[in-house]
Amino acid sequence: MVEAVSNSRLTGGCRCGAVRYETDRPVHAAICHCEDCRRSSGAPMVGWMGVEAGGFRIIKGEPRIWSSNGQAHRHFCATCGTGLSYVNEALIPGIVDVQIATLDDPTMVAPDIQVQVAERLPWSTHIHALPMFDLYPD
């Protein structure tokens, strides 16, 4: 189940504020473990929320677009490099995947599934068992 506090539109943007967006509520939300997401983000997994393409709008700036294969298009800020969205009409027609962590309030959407787990890093299955610290340990 995709969670959100209200029916209002969600807003977000890149780290430096050069690119901003607003969007309708998502139709799905997931953690993706695919190699493409890892290589593009530099992170072991990425949280995405899928929104209907007609409900997503850039309201400030212009993201750069990069495609490794001509089908998947990753949108990011050319100034700070923040990954923002992903469009792949062949895989998910009519949907814009937006990185959940770029929301102004990323607690508004919680992933409810994990995808591409066949490609996940083996050690990521045990992250929940690692010691946790509120701040960086001394």
Give a verbal description of the structure.
With 138 residues, this protein is mostly beta strands. Helices cover 5% and strands 33% of the residues. The protein has one helix and ten strands. Strands 6-7-8-9-4-3-10 form a seven-stranded mixed β-sheet. Strand 6 and strand 7 form a beta hairpin. This is CENP-V/GFA domain-containing protein. Keywords: Lyase, Metal-binding, Zinc. Belongs to the Gfa family.
Count up the helices: 1
Q: Biggest sheet, in brief?
A: 7 strands, mixed
Strand order of the largest sheet: 6-7-8-9-4-3-10
The total count of strands amounts to 10
Structural class of the secondary elements? mainly beta
Amino-to-carboxy terminus distance: 38 Å
Strand content of the residues, in percent? Answer: 25-35%
Measured as a percent range, the helix fraction is under 10%
InterPro entries: CENP-V/GFA, Mss4-like_sf
GO molecular function, one term: metal ion binding
Family: Belongs to the Gfa family.
Protein name: CENP-V/GFA domain-containing protein
Structural descriptors:
138 residues; mainly beta; three-stranded antiparallel sheet; 5% helix
How would you summarize the topology of this molecule?
Blueprint: E1 10-13, E2 20-23, E3 28-32, H1 35-41, E4 46-52, E5 56-60, E6 64-66, E7 73-76, E8 83-87, E9 95-99, E10 113-115
Parallel strand pairs: 3-10
Antiparallel strand pairs: 1-2, 2-5, 3-4, 4-9, 6-7, 7-8, 8-9
